Amino acid sequence: WFNAWIGDDYSAPWLEEIVEALKVFNQKGNRVYFQVGNRDFALNQVFLDKFNGVLLPDIYYLNIAGHQYRLEHGDALCTDDISYQRFKKIIRNPFLVAFLRRTPLSFRTKLVNGFRKRSHSDKQQKSYEIMDVNEQAVLSALTDVDILIHGHTHRPAIHQLQHKQRIVLGDWREDQAYILEIDPSSNTQQLELIVWNY
C-alpha cells in the first residue's frame, strides 16, 4: 500500500481507492487483518475502522487445522542489526509516537522522508548477514509453534527447519506482492508462496 505511514490524518486519492476496495471486500464477508512493521508502526485502529479492518498485535498466534502459526513483521528477529534495534526502541516509544501524532502532517512527512533516506544509506553500509534474521532468534520464535511467518527481510522463501517451517514473505510493490496460501482442508497442510501480479 505505502512505503511509510505518517499518520491516520493522511489522505490521498490512491489511498481512498484502496479504502473503498477494502470496504467492498469486507462487505462480501471477508476480513482484512493488518500487522504493523518498521515503516507503518504509527498506523492504528482509527484508519482501519474506515474499512472494518482489524489491527493485530506485533506477535500473533493462530491455529489452522491443528497447526500453530506465529505471525510477526520480522524486524525483531534481526537481532544482529544492533543500530536498527536501538532506533526501533526509540521511535516506537509510545510517548514519542503520541507526540508525533500531534505534530503537523508536513513535519511528519519531512521526518519520514529523512528516515527513509538514512535507512537506504545505512543498508548500503551493512552486510547481508547483519540485516537478515538471527538463527537463534528464529529458533526461539519457533519454540511453541509449527510455522513462523514473517516479512521485513523481503527474501521470500519457505525454509524447512527440521519438522518446522519459517516462511518469509516478499515486499509489497506497486505491481506485485507475495501471498501465502494455506489450504486447511489438506491433510498435509499445503502452504504455497504465490507471486501476485496486479
Automatic annotation (TrEMBL):
Gene3D superfamilies the UniProt entry points to = 3.60.21.10
Q: Annotated Gene Ontology MF terms?
A: UDP-2,3-diacylglucosamine hydrolase activity
Query: Span of the secretion signal?
Result: none
Q: Name one GO biological process term.
A: lipid A biosynthetic process
Has the keyword Hydrolase been applied to this entry?
yes
CC annotations in GO: cytoplasm; membrane
Which top-rank group of organisms is this from?
Answer: Bacteria
What is the name of the protein in this document? UDP-2,3-diacylglucosamine diphosphatase
